[in-house]
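User: My collaborator and I are trying to settle a disagreement about how two of our proteins should look. Neither of us wants to argue from intuition anymore, so we agreed to look at predicted structures for both before our next call. Could you fold the first one, then the second, and keep them clearly separated?

Assistant: That sounds like a sensible way to settle it. I'll keep them separate. The first protein:
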Amino acid sequence: MQGKNTERLNQLDKTTEEVVIDSSKKLKVGIIGTGWVAEAHVNTYKQMPDVEIVAGADLIEGKADEFFKKWEVENVRTYKSHKELLDNEELDAVSVCTYNSTHAECAIYALEKGINVLLEKPMCVTLEEAIEIRRAEKKSGKIVSVGFQPRFDANMQMIKKIVESGELGEIYYIQTGGGRRRGIPTPFGTTFIQEDTAGIGALGDIGCYSLDMVLNAIGYPKPLTVTGYTSNFFGTNKKYVKKPEYAEVFGVDDFAAAFVRLEGDIILDFRIAWAMHLDTPGDTIILGKKGGLRIPSTPCWNGSVGGPLKIYHDIAGNLVETVIPSIENKDIDKLWYVKIRSFLDNIKSGGEAPVPTSQIIYNQAIIDGIVKSSKLKKEIEIVIPEI
């Protein structure tokens, strides 16, 4: 699938319009949740001649109608809940763009109705929810693809190519994470910071991306144990939030760190932040027995890399550093296009999900393990049943 996605990116270097798409059969699509992340979905779907957006749902009265009016999408039937939409529409696919805490129930209900799901990140809030999504997916025979568009960035794909080339040798240690000096996401209110809607904070917002960057590169080994820590010193302090009342409802993590043991005797040293007294918690480092790879951090974890990659290795007894120039990402919308196009293409072909739950369940298991370990203040074992 990586080769097909790279080919799609190369095609898009020309223009989106030049990519040939068979529009003889329209895919009927619905959008559940019409907040800001849904804007990227509707904008992308509108570029695809084989897609018909037929329905949308939002819990807030009139919000879905205003959303589709703003985006000039006509003849869309709107509903007040995901169940109402899914009970009344025959769809090929649905984008789930709701609160983190409702990802699981929306995805599972769609699968029970026989509908393919493009599920925004994070996959959900808990490992238990991820297991139920995976079970529902397998039972339905449909696909769930999780919304990790950074995976399609050319620099991210280069990281994976370097690891798979064997240049680093057997991987034994990874340091990763990232974050923002000040970056608690409250421009659209409190849904990202309240426990009942978000469930998890920086861990689910940007931590899942950082984990996917390295886990995808090394083949997504199973997590075995985790020692985790979370805090919210900034979010609960009126000095550091946009409005004093936000501190009163802040109920998630704004910083997290963990020490994770992965299958294959690999150690993962992880940290992520929405806010901290530092510009970065450090570059991502992948250490192998033949070489090491440094991936420069970004100011806010923007889905790519912060500069050229650098491989540290030995050649003929000499310590050598090989610089891999970063590939400029001029259009972030291109990643969204490839993410959604890949999902739709696999629906048409009967292929597998581009970002499968079989992998992301491990991502979710680590996040869940960090939260649970932090509460228990000890290392815990991660147990994922065979599904």
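The second protein, kept apart from the first:
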Amino acid sequence: MNKLILRGVEVILPESQVTTSLTISNGRIDLIGDVGSDGESIDLSDCVLFPGFVDIHNHGAVGIDVLEATADDLNKVSRFLATQGVTAWLPTTVPADDQTYRHVATEIESAAKSNSNGARLMGIHYEGPFVNSLQCGALHTNHFKTYSVPGDLDFLATPNGGVKMITLAPEVDGAIELVTELEKRGWVISIGHTRANFELLDAAFEKGARHMTHFMNAMPSLHHRNPGPVNWGMLRTDVTCDIIADGIHLAPSMLRLLVNVKGPRNLSLISDAIAAAGKGDGEYQIWGETISVKDGRTSNASGSIAGSVISMLDAVRMMRSLGVSDVDVAQMSSTNPARLLKIESECGSIEEGKRADLVALDENGNVALTLVGGEVVFSRK
């Protein structure tokens, strides 16, 4: 499809929103504004048009786990995510053996090359294994690692040409040197599963770790006499954070507080979804253990929360329900994660010349239409 016009839609721009039409040509946004009748068109007069959601932390969905997935499996996840308004995602690992990591990178690369008719696979996100065993959450500590020399990174398999992101803890042995080496190699470095003090956090920041993973989760709670990662992340206006807006990992009132303290420009929404996402309540075999889902809350045998079963659409709905404006929600669900991954020049906001990665939400907050590169990959219209 070379040309498509989305008519009468409320478009969420980077700083405002306007009811207008949008013309897509050859996969890109050609014109934002009313046009004539030339070209195929879709009436979206009852919808709000957002930039497609970018999920930087996703372990799987619809019964498929990233660690075990084939390329076909990953494309199934991509198609499901498109129904949830996601147009780009970062398959995310948990600590595992080196062979599993190689398998994951190979399958991601293969899936990314095929036409999945769904959300784009942008690379890989390693959650761990350089993290603190005292803040392991649902991660298996037997695969945790420390760092001493560059050769210690040989196991970090990555898909060619994709984004490389990693979550680590600055207090792990050799971690500051690790951050230095990863920065040199072009990794997106995030701080998480940590108990680091201000000195170590500052040191990691100076070497290139300037984002925080599922902020406030898998780190000590904020304490008025014992400042730690949460205090540090709130104070630093030059540090960005991602959050799981499911009302479980963070209470709705805490989500409102973080928007007030950090500001929408410094927060990204993530799903942290696991294979059970999209499947409903029940018991699931994931990561070599039984993870139960009840009333949308995950838990493993030890009682720890083990990821989420939400989608980015659910996170967007939560933030909208809290009174966050659509312009700010678009920042948190699309623009900020795209900026973190350094792909903001091509996607993450609705601007002329950018990829037509778009999602239209109807008056009930449901996905009416998802486009990836100007192609309709999901439609309820």
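Some points you might bring to the call about the second protein. The longest helix spans residues 98-113. The domain at 53-346 is CATH 3.20.20.140 (TIM Barrel).
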